[in-house]
């Protein structure tokens, strides 16, 4: 049996540069990962099965369309043959929330199957499968703090902020990525700054914040509340939202912030974690 963590992805900065002819947008982003996420468990079995457990299981249809089963099928077709598998996805991250839960699950499935089959983690067939599964899947497969270009497939690791205490907050409003990109105003506000992760994050932006607030105005409230907690070094939305993050200097500041936030907004999802 193989157990693989699917860590949540953060976009510490996300600059939208241009609308492309293929319907996607050209991005420059700083990907980072935290110590917590979903969990994928795989075991060889007599018959195939797929079960979703965990606090957000009910947000996902128990269907074959899941990114986990799609990743397993693509691995068998393009990387190495695998026999029938019993797969469990423990869904701990909110769905459609800008922290790439589905992409992380797909990447974790590829990593687990590669381990099971003796395939190297940087095998070009594995990377190609990741690209076919979604824009964020190559970054999630790599799992390191990295600058991302194109749709996120051009990756360049940078020195990270490992150990930085993080609070993730989601108002439990699912946000459609397509709806957010459709509301981007088409203005290129400039490239991702140079430097290490701390410098890029500090000088960077998330250009999807304004369009995401048009889709889900509560995101503005989440950012204001996190700013108002005090003690946060950086507050920003991740991806296309609605999850926002706050980076703290100490775990004590993070714990104090979480306590205040959970008392005032008990209906919001909140996770105390750290950058890896
Ligand atoms: C915004 C990011 C940043 O990491 O993260 P999330 O918010 O999903 O976590 C990603 O680029 C999300 O990429 P991806 O995983 O491809 O998003 P999808 O949900 O498949 O895209 C849905 C739709 O959003 C639009 N889209 C997406 C990505 C992109 N670079 N340009 C786009 O215009 C397209 O219309 C696409 O059909
Ligand atoms: N394992 C999965 N986890 C989350 N979403 C999934 C999964 N498989 C398929 N999906 C679909 O992918 C969409 C995007 O989900 P998700 O990756 O959580 O978004 P985001 O990248 O914005 O955090 C969801 O609307 C859901 O229907």
TrEMBL record:
GO terms for biological process: isopentenyl diphosphate biosynthetic process, methylerythritol 4-phosphate pathway; terpenoid biosynthetic process. The active site is at 9, 136. Its EC number is 2.7.1.148. Keywords: ATP-binding, Isoprene biosynthesis, Kinase, Nucleotide-binding, Transferase. Residues 205-266 form the GHMP kinase C-terminal domain. Belongs to the GHMP kinase family. IspE subfamily. This is 4-diphosphocytidyl-2-C-methyl-D-erythritol kinase. The lineage of its organism: Bacteria, Pseudomonadati, Pseudomonadota, Alphaproteobacteria, Sphingomonadales. The gene is ispE.
């Amino acid at each position: 049996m193989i157990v693989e963590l699917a860590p949540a992805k953060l976009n510490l900065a996300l600059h939208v540069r241009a609308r492309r002819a293929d319907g996607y947008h050209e991005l420059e982003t700083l990907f980072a990962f935290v110590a917590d996420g979903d969990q994928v468990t795989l075991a060889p079995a007599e018959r195939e099965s797929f079960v979703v457990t965990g606090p957000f299981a009910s947000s996902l249809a128990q269907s074959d369309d899941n990114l986990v089963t799609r990743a397993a099928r693509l691995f068998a077709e393009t990387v190495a043959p695998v026999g029938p598998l019993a797969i469990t996805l423990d869904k701990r991250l909110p769905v459609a929330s800008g922290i790439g839960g589905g992409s992380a699950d797909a990447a974790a499935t590829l990593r687990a199957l590669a381990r099971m089959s003796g395939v190297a983690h940087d095998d070009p067939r594995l990377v190609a499968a990741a690209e076919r599964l979604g824009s964020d899947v190559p970054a999630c497969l790599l799992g390191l703090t990295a600058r991302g270009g194109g749709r996120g497939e051009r990756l360049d690791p940078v020195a990270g902020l490992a150990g930085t205490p993080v609070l993730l907050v989601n108002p439990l409003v699912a946000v459609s990525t397509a709806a957010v990109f459709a509301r981007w105003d088409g203005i290129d506000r400039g490239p991702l700054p140079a430097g290490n992760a701390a410098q890029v994050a500090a000088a960077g932006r998330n250009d999807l914040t304004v369009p995401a607030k048009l889709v889900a105005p509560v995101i503005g409230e989440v950012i204001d509340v996190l700013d108002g907690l005090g003690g946060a070094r950086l507050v920003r939305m991740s991806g296309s939202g609605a999850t926002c993050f706050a980076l703290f200097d100490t775990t004590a500041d993070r714990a104090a912030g979480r306590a205040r936030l959970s008392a005032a907004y008990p209906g919001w999802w909140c996770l105390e974690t750290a950058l890896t």
